[in-house]
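Retro notes (design track)

What went well: tokenization of the new backbones is finally stable.
What didn't: we kept losing track of which sequence belonged to which structure.
Fix going forward: every design gets posted as structure first, then sequence, in one message. First example under the new rule, 120 residues:
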């Protein structure tokens, strides 16, 4: 029986393909418009954005409900319509921009492909 010496750590590392940083690869391929779309979609879903909308909505409602009658610029029914539209504005860009540019999907595929190569 022939005894062989085990391979060193460096030899084992050289047998493997280097690990790819798919996130960096993905970022490098984005156009300026795609970067802007991602920036918008990342900010719209934050608590900071939510709090801004909450404060704005509460201020709007209070002013038009208990403010001086002569200074109220948006009577009751219009506020409800504005509230509905503002909620749609918050919700729609995030889903539409992601589906239009498909960046979440492409990054996912790139990540999964890199993982598959590591395990093969």
């Amino acid at each position: 029986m022939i005894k062989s010496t085990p391979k060193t750590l460096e030899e084992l590392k050289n047998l493997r393909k280097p690990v790819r940083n798919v996130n960096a690869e993905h970022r490098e391929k984005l156009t300026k418009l795609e970067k802007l779309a991602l920036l918008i979609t990342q900010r719209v879903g934050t608590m900071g954005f939510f709090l801004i909308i909450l404060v704005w909505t509460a201020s709007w409602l209070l002013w038009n409900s208990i403010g001086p009658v002569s200074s109220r610029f948006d009577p009751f029914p219009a506020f409800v319509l504005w509230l509905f539209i503002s909620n749609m504005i918050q919700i729609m860009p995030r889903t539409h921009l992601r589906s239009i540019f498909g960046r979440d999907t492409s990054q996912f595929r790139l990540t999964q492909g890199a993982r598959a190569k590591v395990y093969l």
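Added context from the reviewer: The first helix runs from residue 9 to 15.
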